[in-house]
Amino acid sequence: MKNEYLKIKIDSFGAELKSLKNLQNNIEYLWQSDPKYWNRSSPILFPIVGKLLDDEYIYKDKTYNMSQHGFARDKEFTLIKQKDKYLKFLLKSDSSSLKIYPFSFELFISYTLEDNELKISYEVVNKSSEKMYFSIGAHPAFNWPIDDVNTNKDDYYFEFDCKNRDSLKVFPLLKEGISNKKLDIKLVKKKLNIDENIFKDDALILKNENINKIKLKNIKNDKFIEVCFEGFSYLGLWSKPTGAPFVCIEPWHGIADFINHNKNIEEKEGINILEENKIFLSSYIIKI
User: Is 6-287 in CATH node 1.10.10.60?
Assistant: First the structure.
């Protein structure tokens, strides 16, 4: 799908964004799934975000197993609507999903192009006869550097739109789960320089407090990526500390388990609750 500014590619497996190319300069902005570092580009995280303690949760006194980030990213979606600048995909619960997630649902993922912006929208419908507990989130990975011909990784920084803030309060990600003890990462004029060292302990995870957008920018040219995510409750920033040439900006409605969690999904921090036949809507925008 393309317009005069952008060309995108979507894989129906996972309804995953696989390419985001600027047609004005022919630069690919999205990470191209190199298994040497990471074999995904922009997976959909559902019905959990992050990792559960021991990869399991409890619902109504029954224990269920689920791997990190849930199962939607490894499911075939159905393309149900296609226009010149719009695609919409659907995933429904089935017998295999009900074994590990006992809720009937419909998950719609749509992509809309408008000028130099791509809007990604989520629609979750609870088809169960009871409350549904879920998380959903984004995981887009962007090439870092954006243009490897003229720039290097040390030229890049995150720019936050936060007001009256000189630091980010980050939850440390431990092997056993997330720690409740927040760490401060200093900002300079709302900016955080990016290097591999900031990801040495894995992702930077923070509760979203009035941050609605982040730019990945270069100090030497005008190329940038902006992710706008108003209404998302958490945010993850991630790259592998192994020289991986990508960085992820991840708006989330939900979060991984904290180390003191009792595994009960009804009491999980950040969990969303959807009543029978109700609909959850959310979206974020990538601008280049």
Answer: no
